[in-house]
Amino acid sequence: xxxPMGSVRLKKTSPATLAVxxxxxxxxIYFLIGPSTPNFSPSRKAAAAAHHLSPPTSxxxxxxxxxxxxxxPPVAHYNLNNVTTTPNPLExxxxxLILTPMARFYPAYWDNILRLEYPHxxxxxxxxxxxTKEGNEATRELQKRITKTQKHGPEKxxxxxxxxxxxxxxxxxxxxxxxxxxxxxxxKVRRAAMAKxxxxxxxxxxxxxxxxxxxxxxxxxxxxxxxxxxxASHDQAVMVPNCxxxxxxxxKQMMDERPYxxxxxxxxPTALDMAKKMNPDDILLEGYSEMATxxxxxxxxxxxxxxxxxxxxxxxxxxxxLLVKADVHRDGAMFPPFAFYxxxxxxxxxxxxxxxxWQPVGLPNYKVYHYNE
Length: 373
Fold this sequence. Notes:
- The protein is an alpha/beta fold.
- It has a single domain, classed as Spore Coat Polysaccharide Biosynthesis Protein SpsA, Chain A.
- The chain is built from nine helices and twelve strands.
- The chain has helices at 15-33, 107-114, 133-152, 178-181, 187-205, 227-232, 269-276, 326-330, 345-355, and strands spanning 95-101, 123-129, 161-166, 210-216, 220-222, 238-249, 254-259, 265-266, 296-297, 312-313, 321-325, 360-370.
- Strands 1, 2, 3, 4, 5, 6, 7, 10, 11 and 12 form a ten-stranded mixed β-sheet that branches.
- The longest helix is centred in the middle third of the chain and has 20 residues, at 133-152.
- It is globular.
- Belongs to the ANP1/MMN9/VAN1 family.
């Protein structure tokens, strides 16, 4: 028999299908009318930056429903005009940032830091270490010393804060032995990596209240306890002491010292002429017989009868120990990981500082000492 036109037979819907449909409808309704952003309640306080160098960064969200209105994160105000960099940093209680790229941990380095006579509550320490087996070991040793100092040490030894960064790039050299590090063929790639590490450390730690930055290599194990006050007293924007190394002199049968850092120099006509003939991506290096520049090296300008605070203007600087006014870095002077006027890393930094109007200065008779491997 023919079915009447317009009549439709409906299939019986199963309970499972009906349940899925209801759930889907509820989800769509919630999606359309529910809150579009999460509720930032007090339990989310950890999302806000608590470090003294950074203002809170967690966004403010109005609470939903009948909950009491939460206070927004505070607005941090910094007046850089009030940040001083004077020849009397101790008297004016200026904040110091000591930055150290570290591939190995030297106990003598930490002992030397603890002996600094500048108030530790005004010093922030910053470290960057590679993600290598050696870097992991150095990090463990560093953290042990930090814990001992910051948690169990005398109040006078505790620093304002300590920041540890781990590099996000692979180190160009597997070995950190001194001979391997100083091979000529390794210099460009090694120093480019060092420049990137320095820049990462600098721009991750430079705070709005920082007055001075003391760059101090991890293998510099001896400095005068008053090095910060001594270098700052010259009121120079970029200031370097002379880096030497103590060793056993077989000929004299006694302890002796020798120059170590040859990156503190005054330029020469020969070096300038060599640079003119180089490709833009080539770099000039100091201290190699294959590349005789005939520059005036501060390492050889030290005199037994010289004045401790005698100054000399420089065109290139090393990073073993280097005091910099924070304004120099804030102006944009960084460590080029590329050839900058045929210079790289710390020497490129000196060139960049000069281009910005800041003259580097050295103290040939004021010495710090490098670890002797």
